[in-house]
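Q: Now give one record:
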Amino acid sequence: MAHIDYYLTPLSPWVYMAGTRPAEIAARNGATITYKPLDPGALFQRTGGKVLAERHESRQAYRLQELRRWSARLDMPLTLKPRHFPTNGAPASYAIIAAQAAGDGDVAALLHGLGRACWAEDRDIADDAVIRDCLAQAGFDPALADHGLLAGAETYGRNLEEGIAAGVFGMPFFVVGEERFWGQDRLDMLDEHLAGAG
């Protein structure tokens, strides 16, 4: 059985654009998936990338065009400049880690709900109330937002190290064995790879 390591930050508009498709691709191909939130700033610093504010203005302008185009193509609502971006992605990441460990809800729905909260609903995903609401909507106990913070922080740091070792440099990033797929626009290729490996 193939396995997907999905490296992400719930703050990424591209992770939001990926939606629940990674989970659907995994299910369709009989693969398993592990969600691995990590710190994007630390990842970029260690792999030669730059956070958005440090990128050249031409890159920032092109990003906005791409977001607009992909939002239209995928028919997904998107605020190009949400009120609460950037924000602290760690609390939402810890909630994803805790939810995945709890295993009694839908992690893909949780991740997508957090992305939608930031990119379509202008809510702050660093806010405990927003995180609790997203947990509940995905079938998890909202109290997960208050538990396992130490374990979440440890896993968050471990995900960064594992991601760097696996060749991750951006998000969303999918690793299947030796194969790597960067970006929501490579999900078709991930699907094709898994179909051929089955």
